[in-house]
Hints:
This protein is α/β, with parallel strands linked by helices. The protein folds into two domains: 42-63 and 82-222, P-loop containing nucleotide triphosphate hydrolases (Rossmann fold, 3-Layer(aba) Sandwich), CATH 3.40.50.300; 231-320, no CATH class. It is 29% helix and 25% strand. It contains nine helices and twelve strands. The chain has an eight-stranded mixed sheet, sandwiched between helices. Strand 9 (224-229) and strand 10 form a beta hairpin. Helix 3 runs parallel beside helix 5. The model has no long low-confidence stretch (mean pLDDT 91). Iron/sulfur cluster binds next to loops.
Amino acid sequence: MTNALLEVRGLVKHFAVTRGLAGKKLFVRAVDGIDFAIRAGETLGLVGESGCGKTTAGRLVLRLIEPTAGEVLFEGESLGRLDRRALLARRRSFQIIFQDPFASLNPRMTVAEIVGRPMEIHGIARRAERDDRVAELLEAVGLRRDQLGRYPHEFSGGQRQRIGIARAIATRPRLIVADEPTSALDVSVQAQILNLLRDLQARFGLTYLFISHNIGVIRHISDRVAVMYLGKIVELAAKRALFEQPAHPYTQALLAAVPKTDPRRREAGPVLEGDVPSPVSPPPGCRFHTRCPRAMAVCRNEEPAFRPLADGRQVACHLY
Ligand code: SF4
């Protein structure tokens, strides 16, 4: 993709686990060869059921964990080729917002320390000017200057996520991986946080990789959407195309499971039955064939390639 801020090529992460008394070594194939790119200023939603590998993918993108194979390019530069020092300097440009705003904030640090710490690490603000910069960030996320000296437990869940967001934008990053940032929040607060993320995107020119299991949240925030199943991306499309005409049977099933508010659109869709197979031994051929209502003989043996269709979307399915 031209003008890609981030490009992911053939990314793989297998975690070794030992099972049983004999200590047999097995591999969890959390991410098993994914490719995508994100343009500067856009939001790519990454959606799938729990355990599909989307959180691992987010951590690989930021090189918080090392890949088993594959490459992540940020502004054309391979992160895997950077030494520790160069990676630390690069980290200023990409940050993460975590799911649980309480667990991700140190309870013994004040808001000024939590939000100011990344600025100190990257030499953006000295201690004397730090509080002023933090106060500006707090106001940007809808908190108040006089809350600088408070501790995380003095805030509500939504306010704590605002602190997490202020910390993420403190280094003026270009890319933010938002990993289920609204999942731990009350429904009434979720929309406020999503709207805040959108406002900050416009104000600071941010690019998001937005990870969620919630298809409604993904629809609200994304420009394009990548659907993940058992360590693979099965469909990647512009939001409108994906929601109006989902191509992959798994995407169709995910959307059919969402309650429709418009009674005219209550058409029956395929129902997703059965559990997600184990990522230790994913089914051969198409990984979705054990649950796919349209599976054919070829699906059991041959893995479908992830290829572009005429309308620009990419799909991994033998139907196309
Ligand atoms: Fe279903 Fe076959 Fe397509 Fe897989 S490749 S999604 S099993 S039709």
